[in-house]
């Protein structure tokens, strides 16, 4: 993996944080989009009440991460939250081969074409074949929405007990302060980062991120995207854990409704 994208020694710069002790643990690392834009990366470990672990958008499996996993429980689910967040699926499945792998349509074919490690997908989310159950323990704690109208085929999970919305590229919350906090560089430095960050911020009225999602992310099938956003907005989350940028605590629902205001309004008018 090119050091221009991800750190060559992730153990030195990863931030392992218990967002909710014994329930939600985040693994935050530096990540450079196109090798230039500091967007950060984040994996999330959710400990179910049964002790099973769900690993969403896995990042590098360092020794410290393995120790944390051993402390928490047994990895039973590994999910790529979209067609881009999959580069560490192979190492995680190799370490925990009994875990079920989840991902969106197009990803198995993409990985095969790229020559990635062979990983058996237990669940592939498809537009025309909705998945309504993963397992009793998983179903009891998660809501999910597959958003095939998203450019990257997004999977969004809501962990109900912790009221946490866990996303990949659905929305950003730049700058990636936590993710670059051990990297020895300013998360906001660089002209490309500043420009991209302006389009992917939730500050103020977030108008530039609204525009980026409306005219970019959702342009393929905006009506279906609107419907997905409306369904997610019915969930009772208070926290948003994005892959790119800082975790949003307490007012997550308000930030979500601000960023997706145009989509929510369009969905309401359609109904």
TrEMBL record:
InterPro entries on file: DUF4336 (IPR025638), RibonucZ/Hydroxyglut_hydro (IPR036866)
Entry superkingdom: Eukaryota
Pfam families xref list: DUF4336
PANTHER family for the chain: METALLO-BETA-LACTAMASE DOMAIN-CONTAINING PROTEIN, YALI0C07656P
Name of this chain's protein: Beta-lactamase-like protein
Source organism (scientific name): Ampelomyces quisqualis (Powdery mildew agent)
């Amino acid at each position: 993996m090119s050091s221009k994208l991800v750190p060559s020694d992730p153990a030195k710069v990863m931030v392992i944080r218990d967002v909710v002790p014994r329930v939600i643990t985040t693994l935050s690392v530096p990540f450079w989009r196109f090798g230039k834009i500091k967007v950060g990366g984040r994996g999330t470990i959710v400990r179910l009440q049964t002790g099973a672990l769900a690993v969403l958008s896995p990042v590098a499996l360092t020794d410290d991460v393995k120790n944390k996993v051993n402390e928490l429980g047994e990895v039973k689910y590994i999910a790529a939250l979209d067609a881009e967040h999959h580069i560490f699926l192979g190492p995680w499945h190799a370490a925990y081969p009994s875990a079920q792998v989840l991902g969106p349509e197009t990803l198995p074919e993409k990985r095969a074409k790229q020559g990635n490690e062979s990983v058996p997908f237990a669940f592939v989310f498809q537009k025309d074949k909705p998945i309504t159950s993963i397992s009793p323990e998983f179903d009891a704690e998660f809501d999910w929405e597959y958003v095939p109208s998203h450019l990257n085929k997004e999977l969004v999970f809501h962990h109900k007990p912790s009221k946490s919305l866990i996303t990949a590229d659905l929305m950003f919350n730049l700058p990636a302060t936590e993710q670059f906090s051990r990297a020895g560089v300013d998360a906001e430095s660089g002209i490309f980062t500043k420009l991209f960050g302006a389009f992917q911020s939730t500050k103020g009225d977030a108008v530039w991120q609204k525009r980026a999602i409306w005219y970019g992310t959702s342009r393929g099938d905006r009506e279906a995207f609107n419907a997905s956003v409306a369904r997610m907005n019915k969930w009772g989350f208070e926290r948003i854990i994005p892959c790119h940028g800082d975790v949003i605590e307490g007012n997550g629902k308000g930030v979500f409704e601000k960023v997706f205001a145009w989509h929510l309004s369009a969905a309401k008018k359609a109904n």
